[in-house]
Amino acid sequence: MHTLEVDWDHPTDPRPGPRLDHVRAYVSTAGADGHLWHGVPTLLLTTLDRTTGTTVRIPLIYGEDAGRFLVVASADGAPDHPHWYRNLTAHPEVRLQVGAATFEATAHTATATEREVYWEMMTALWPPFEDDQAAARPREIPLVILERLPGR
């Protein structure tokens, strides 16, 4: 099997604005400034862009369970899945920065059973996800499980 060479170290960051400011603060301080955002934990997710082959990075709120990281593809209640989610469904190997730690992980969309368990956890962490789900209907907002790759 051919392994795709991915440049994880030079991702494209969000356009100028609050998300870019968040990413820059997070990276420049190894997560000391930016890991907590509005009182909730955030990570930086880097995906391989399915159309350009470049890497892109975005900050996301996360939950954690048994060493697995959970993120919600809400897109603020938009009718379509966010770009980062469509990227990881095409290429499930991703890079995460959680605080000062940076590592590769693999992503999968939660099964119906996993989503049922973790959705409650994520909406308790960030209640606006419920509003996003109401706005996104009929789209069901995916919940993504990220698992660190062994030895990375």
From TrEMBL:
InterPro entries: F420H2_quin_Rdtase, Split_barrel_FMN-bd
Residues annotated as transmembrane: none
Record field: catalytic activity: oxidized coenzyme F420-(gamma-L-Glu)(n) + a quinol + H(+) = reduced coenzyme F420-(gamma-L-Glu)(n) + a quinone
Origin: domain of life: Bacteria
Family: Belongs to the F420H(2)-dependent quinone reductase family.
Protein name per the record: Nitroreductase
Organism from which the protein derives: Streptomyces virginiae
